[in-house]
DNA sequence: AATGAATGAGATTTCATTCAT
DNA sequence: AATGAATGAAATCTCATTCAT
């Protein structure tokens, strides 16, 4: 909408990234055409290639830069937190807040991994693993200290991340709830979810032998 | 000349649906070409049109049929459950189990809504709303009876659904955990998450005025 | 010119090949666009892909099929010739005649080798080597029997082939000379060129140590 | 900001010509992009236009300058030669030597005529005609004096030129033969080829009525 | 004389869809 | 119900060329 017609100079690249994020968020990588993107930026589609090398590289750059930033800021948010509950609360608050601010980036980084070419995919999954391990470590520490209780750390990690990341499918600024309320709602859910508590009314569960977090496999391709 | 190779007879439609589910799951709707799909089935792409009317209709049918089936089976799973905790446990068990069995369908029904044309989109969102309302109602009942505690029912509904649906991004049969273990892990997480419990260490939260579940807006399009 | 509008069925492939030969002959492979080619055939450019897999494959097929045919017919033309002079005369007559009939194919097979991708290039050069070796063998035999005299067999082979192949840059049916006259002119030139005869008025020439024909190197690429 | 890397000053034009010759030789005019050329020279493609006016003009200049130089040097090489055989030997020696030194220029001047726009094409063909006429005149003189025997002077002219020009498709310095040996090999072939000699074993050939050399037609275009 | 960014045309290739057979 | 060949639009990407700086 902010069509800076005949966009020029070093601002063009930034405009491409911003428009790219929005279009991929809305339509998906495969469904976004470079013509659309160029039109959004206000240039001819061929002119995009003065700034990007391929469509695939654009996606890769967007995702990689996002995850790097995410990791950097997460580590800052966790700084100084001592006990597992504080860490977990900080993790949730950071994650939710960040996702409300950068919902395009976050959504894309989760949903468009399958659009990455193998080499790029490997690189991103490695980065993502680092982020997941931060949460897994917090949970493991809490379990070890008896503060938390989960059936399986890996499953809990994935589940909590899915829960938190779900925000960017429905959050829109100016909605019914304030950001703080949304953060609080998620803190309650997550903190409670790992609290020692009501045993499920089932028995003979094969307990997870390992609590190290395994790499998620890539969905099989043909 | 005709019918040299490839499947034929009434089995073809089923083969198309199955291959379509897998290909859309792997590559996404936009990135799946009908040539790919036809090749998977063992026919020419033109022959697909003896069975489907358009690519879009195929997606719509797959998603609609899935959600209808989901609702039907959910209602059966909830049959006879009386108190909110039992209902919630049944919901989780059903949802997780179903998602492990039909991960392609479930994933597509969540991730490819944006690929539906407006009319189809509306129809599906309406169906999905019915499913969401089942969970929202359980939570509301539990809160009313003092069994559950959440900051906001709508947020909790979306969060729990996101948590549960996350399974289909990583589940693979034959993995480290049995199905029952996975179900149990999720039951623990979800049941705990809404248990009356550790107050978040924040105050003055603007409480949600309404607990009716609002329709999620569709992401704005151009 | 023979634009069979809306060309259909199995004739299309033949039309593509014929038009492709002419257009590559006239403009060169790189300068021929598939739109041009399709227009010539009377179809849309996308429709070409019902018959060819890529532009490069079209070139490769045209060149390979031509060289195979050339070899086949050469061997037939040489059948039964006993002494080197008869063989050489037959070679010249065949080569010249063939080149007048198929000047497009011949020209392309010589001038567009550089447009072949490495793998295709290797395959064609191997085939071409077989053709060159036929002539080299005739010359070697003639030299051994004292009927011919050349300074270097490899150089003579390349030179004679260049001489003979030059025809397709200027020959046009209906010109000043009959085909027979053209053949006779070339027979005279080639037969004389290797006849024992006027020593060049130079001395101390480093004689060629080997008379085996070496593979021509591919022009270096970047 | 400007002039960070890459050649500059008056040497740039020479670098462009040299790189252009090599790239056209290797890939052909149509397949050489100005980006490639600029990269080779070490500048941006836009900067080429400080030195050339269009891609087409670059080709034209390269070809024209080459042919002019060729003519100039040929005339110097023929200076003082009296009888046809000496002239022909001098022609061959000059041509072969020159082609070994300037194989890029020679090859392009022969193979890229079709890439010239009509006006440029006419100009070059006129120049080339002058060169061809030098050889045709030598042959005619030799035939008139009874020193040479050919079936048709025009055909012989074209054939000998093709033979001699073939060198630049295979010559590479440092190969098996010395330059002198290569020259000698070609002198033998050419001098012998026009020597009165073995009548072809055919009869009733329609003799060429004219011995003036006709202009080669340009290949028909669309 | 060089850069970097733009243009507008055009390249090859793929797509969903149609239809006579 | 399947094929093979067609369409017309659209995809990504490259091209020669221009021009303000």
Describe the structure.
The structure is a homotetramer of 222-residue chains. Residues 1-6, 199-215 and 217-222 of chain A have low confidence and may be disordered. Helices cover 59% and strands 0% of the residues of chain A. The longest helix of chain A has 27 residues, at 118-144. Chain A is elongated, with a radius of gyration of 20 Å. Chain A has helices at residues 11-27, 34-41, 55-78, 84-101, 103-111, 118-144, 153-165, 179-193. Chain A has 222 residues and is mainly α. Chain A has 2 domains: 1-53, Orthogonal Bundle (Arc Repressor Mutant, subunit A), CATH 1.10.10; 54-194, Orthogonal Bundle (Tetracycline Repressor, domain 2). The first copy, chain A, contains 8 helices and no strands. The interface between C and D is large, with 69 and 70 residues. The structure holds a DNA duplex (21 and 21 nucleotides).
Strand content of chain A: under 5%
Q: Give the SSE string of chain A.
A: HHHHHHHH
The greatest inter-chain interface is formed by: C-D, 69 and 70 residues
CATH topology of the largest domain in chain A: Tetracycline Repressor, domain 2
Task: Summarize, please.
The structure is a homotetramer of 222-residue chains. The first copy, chain A, is mostly helical. Helices cover 59% and strands 0% of the residues of chain A.
Tag the structure with descriptive keywords.
homotetramer, 222 residues, mainly alpha, Arc Repressor Mutant, subunit A, 0% strand, disordered N terminus, disordered C terminus, DNA-binding
Topology of helices and strands:
The structure is a homotetramer of 222-residue chains.
Chain A: H1 11-27, H2 34-41, H3 55-78, H4 84-101, H5 103-111, H6 118-144, H7 153-165, H8 179-193
Helix pairs in contact in A: 1-2, 1-5, 3-4, 3-5, 3-6, 4-5, 4-6, 4-8, 6-7
The structure holds a DNA duplex (21 and 21 nucleotides).
């Amino acid at each position: 909408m902010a069509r800076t017609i005949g966009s020029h100079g070093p601002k063009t690249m930034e405009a491409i990234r911003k428009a790219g994020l929005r279009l991929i968020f809305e339509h998906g990588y495969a469904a976004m055409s470079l013509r659309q993107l160029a039109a959004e930026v206000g240039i001819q589609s061929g002119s995009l290639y003065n700034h990007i090398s391929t469509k695939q590289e654009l996606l890769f750059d967007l995702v990689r830069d996002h995850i790097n930033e995410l990791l950097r800021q997460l580590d800052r948010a966790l700084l100084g937190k001592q006990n597992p509950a504080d860490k977990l609360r900080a993790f949730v608050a950071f994650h939710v807040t960040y996702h409300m601010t950068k919902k395009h980036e976050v959504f894309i980084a989760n949903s468009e991994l399958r659009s990455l070419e193998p080499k790029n995919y490997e690189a991103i999954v490695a980065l993502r693993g680092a982020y997941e391990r931060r949460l897994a470590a917090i949970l493991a520490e809490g379990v070890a200290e008896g503060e938390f209780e989960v059936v399986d750390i890996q499953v809990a990690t994935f589940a909590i991340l899915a829960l938190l990341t779900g925000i960017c499918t429905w959050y829109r600024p100016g909605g019914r709830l304030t950001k703080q309320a949304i953060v609080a709602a998620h803190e309650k859910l997550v903190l409670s979810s790992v609290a020692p508590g009501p045993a499920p009314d089932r028995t003979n569960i094969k307990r997870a032998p390992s609590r190290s977090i395994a790499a998620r496999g890539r969905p099989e391709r043909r």
